[in-house]
Amino acid sequence: MRKAFTLPELMLVLAVVGILTGLALPRLSVAIDRIEVEGAANRLITAHRRARIMAIARGQVVLLSIDSTRLTISVQGGTEPLWSDIGPAAAGVELAGPARQFTFSPGGTTLGFSNATLQLTRGSTTRTLVISRLGRIRIVR
To answer: 31, 33, 109, 123: which sits with the fewest CB atoms below 10 Å from its CB?
Structure first.
């Protein structure tokens, strides 16, 4: 006689797996949203720091353009970007507001405005980046 699982046993296992999946899936979705928003925030912080360092190292005015689809660093008046990366939208993260442009002086400070706020959202996860004129970046959760 062969040993095997009966149909009721298989149905019970499938029901338990279904219940566990139903409980775990929303938490997994929230975790993925949090990871993607943190990744997008880190890319924005890295681009900001990179642009500031490039301005200091080159002794030139450098522009950082932040769009939902693209992050670009270029020299003021230049036609070719020095550096470019994907924007938050590539990870499904929404950047609130219009495209932004930061202008860095050769001394490393931003020109034009005192503070900037960038809000990133995906699902129920939101992070706000507060950027000071001196280059300090604070993440508000």
So the answer is: 31
Nearest to 93 by CA among 64, 140, 126: 126
HEC secondary structure over the chain: CCCCCCHHHHHHHHHHHHHHHHHHHHHHHHHHHHHHHHHHHHHHHHHHHHHHHHHHHHCCCEEEEECCCEEEEEECCCCCCCEEEECHHHHCCEECCCCEEEEECCCCCEECCCEEEEEEEECCEEEEEEEECCCCEEEEC
Q: Tell me the residue type at 35.
A: I
Helix/strand/coil percent split, the chain, to 5? 40, 30, 30
Q: What does the pLDDT profile of the chain (141 residues) look like in tens digits?
A: 678 888 888 899 898 888 888 887 788 888 999 999 999 999 999 999 999 999 999 999 999 999 999 999 999 998 899 999 999 999 999 999 899 999 999 998 888 776 889 999 999 999 999 998 888 899 988
